[in-house]
Design goal:
With 128 residues, the protein is mainly α. The chain is built from 6 helices and 3 strands; from the N terminus they run ααβααββαα. A hairpin with a 2-residue loop joins β2 and β3. It starts with a helix and ends with a helix. 8% of the residues are buried.
Length: 128
Amino acid sequence: MSRNAKCLSQPDSLEQKSGSQRISAYVRRGLMRYQEAADYLGIAKGTLANWVSQRIGPRSIKIGSMRLFRQEDLDVFIEEKLFETERFEKRRRRQRGRGALVLTCPHPDLFLFSVLALALAVFIFTVS
C-alpha cells in the first residue's frame, strides 16, 4: 500500500466526533471561530467578516464551511495594527508643523491694504 493510501485510510480524529465535540477539538488546538476571534480583537463579528472578505483582516483557515482563526495570527494582526497606528501618528505629527500660516481678519480689504503698506515700507527702507 502506498504512503498516500495509508493517510487516506486513517480517519481524522475530528471527523469521528459530533459537532460540539469537533468544535471543542478546534478550541483545544488554539483555533477560534468568528465570534471568539471578534471578541478577542474587541470588534464586532460583522466587522471581522468584512475585513476577511476584503483581505485586510487577520489570517484565517477555512475548513469546510467554518472559518477559523489561530490566536497567534490574531496577536500578529494586533501587533501589525499597532505598528501601523504608530507610524500614522508620527506622520501626522510631522505634517502638523508644516501647515501654512493662516490669518483671518474681519475686514479682508483692510488687511490686504495693511500688508501692501507694510511691504512698501520694507521696500523703501531697503532701497534707501
